[in-house]
Amino acid sequence: MTTIQPEGESLRKAVQWISEEKKAGSTRTHQQLLEAACLKFNLNPMEAEYLARSFKETSP
User: Fold this and answer.
1) Which of 32, 30, 37 lies closest to 12 in space, CA to CA?
2) Total domain count, the chain
3) Is the pLDDT higher at 57 or at 51?
4) What is the Cα–Cα distance from 60 to 49, expressed in whole angstroms?
5) Per the CB 3.0–4.6 Å rule, which of 3, 14, 29, 46 could disulfide with 41?
């Protein structure tokens, strides 16, 4: 079984970090997590857009 994984190492780390933060019950909003990940992992605009699409907010 294959999984879709982003190409860049920093993007992979950002995806993992956001997932871990959500599992840990972070009090940050969805947008705050995305912004923090972009800064923490120095993502370029394309990577930031991929990240935003990958973690679309599902709750109202």
Assistant:
1) 37
2) 1
3) 51
4) 21
5) 14
